[in-house]
Amino acid sequence: MATQTEKxxxxxxxxxxxxxxxxxxxxxxPRQHGQSIYYIERRPLENGRCVIVVVNNKLLSDILPPPYxxxxxxHEYGGGSxxxxxxxxxxxxxxxxxxxxxKDNQVKRITEINNFRFADLVxxxxxHRLIAVCEAHAEQTVTNTLVSIDIKNGxxxxxxxxxxxxASPRLNSTNEQLCWQSWDHPNxxxxxxxxxxxxxxxxxxxxxxxxxxxxDNISVFQPQWSPDDRLYFIxxxxxxxxxxxxxxxxxxxxxxxxxxFGLPQxxxxxxxxTFIDNTHVLCYFQSQGQTxxxxxxxxxxxxxxxxxxxxxxxxxxxADNSNICFIAASSSExxxxxxxxxxxxxxKSEQVKNSCQLPIDTKYYSNAQSLSFINRHQQTVYANYxxxxxPDYTNKKCGITNSAKPPLIIICHGGPTGQASTALDPRKQFxxxxxxxxxxxxYSGSTGYGKTYRERLHGKWGRLDIEDCCDAxxxxxxxxxxxxxxxxxxxxxxxGYTVLSALTFENVFSAGASYYGISELTSLAEHTHKFESxxxxxxxxxxxxxxxxxxxxxxxxxxxxxxxxxxxxxGTEDRVVPKEQAEKMFEALDKKGLxxxxxxxxxxxxxxxxxxxxxxSLENELSFYQLIFKLKPKDEIVFKGNIQLKNV
Length: 648
Description:
14% of the residues lie in helices and 37% in strands. With 648 residues, it is mainly beta.
């Protein structure tokens, strides 16, 4: 096929939105159990149903039939939605949040309790019970506890209560000791939490409880028992999330340097390390935006040996004896489930399942290029750049109004305590293959760069993050990577707030897209769910004492300063950011006569899961930009579904 000449942003791409959802799943929560691997597939074509799959002798089999879906809603974000014992699977069902088991291909209900949710399931072999985080929803209150669940009758027994939050209940191999995490408002778990250890008495209740690590300003992550019943955990007590071994005298730090072995606990049951045997750990860590797989010796000297792999993005590592599984990706490979063995530091691996099977030549893919820049406060900030890539096209210049530079989309990740990944992502390729450049910004407050970088955003959310994103766009323009007149910003959730704030309080971007983004902070502080209800205390200030500051940083209160087109996408059942936030912004911009669009999706929550939602939002966002920037004749632009368009 001969190369065609067409304007950036109007290239035709073989990477269609329909192809993305038809060939794209999310792989989550892999567990190595003996010779078997269990994991979850979230399938857009089944309306986001989360299916438990087992892998035996390279054969993949669904073990969770419709209509069941394995998903926890504790903290709204869930995680730890199933566990396995002796090939019996215990899982949390999405629709009712009750616990079920799968045995001999039959699904049996264990609990039947209204308004209760569970997460982080662990099986207690000695007592034939489950231990879990429990979240009870009453009319005006939400109470979190640690409970045990009798698998015969579903009866609950409270093991620990009194703290605002709990996570990571973990039993040693003899089922005689239990560790767990707890924390209280206003902390998020990455601000600070405590690690506890207790013995279990004859009835299975905790006794002799003691606080062994962490604190109000020290974050602990992933406590885990080794095969010989030594307790390990990750802590940021020295400013970086490092691995430690618990000791009655002094906890021993096993890793050093500017490396992050931990993650922010947005979800339960995350895993960045696993035990190969009594003396070695397989782990991954981040340093300067790069992720590396390594082995760590648990005996002195504690040597960290990096393992060369084709991947630089890892997730959910698990092992049982010499059998290992994890999720891996790179800038040229989609996330995939890997089965591996390790012998003398040599990793032998094979792919079990790829999350995306686009039948497209790799020459259509744009690979992430890591870069850094200095922001206006003389601080280093990191980002990943994706150039427009499509071998079928070159750019068409159209007079002085269209430069030789592409339109640039700044991506704001969520959280804001999150991180932009360099993993190959079909949704990013949707844009780059159409002639857009992308810059995915790890603005101040992101994870992966140490505690100081993460805490830069304290008191400055809605200011420093938007400044970093604006400075990132300016840096790209200065490098000749983008057209300064076609700068776009898009983001979801907290990233959507950064989008709306940047469009309101700065004058850099010409258009934006907010996916279930925050526009009004006071109502968020007053009405959001329990897990994040005090999140803003550190990001902005205590509420209601500093209510004035919340109002000042709310885009809805300063729409007179917003003067560019915006498109909104929102789920009607979102309990984190209610759809009223998008509706108010839409109405305000419509009254100003600005080009504005909004699309509301029935039955979608905080994060889109259905195939139709994903395809429509991508296509309509593209059409919106093509219309605003006149990248395509107006009579050729089509919007799909029930979308509201004003002043366009």
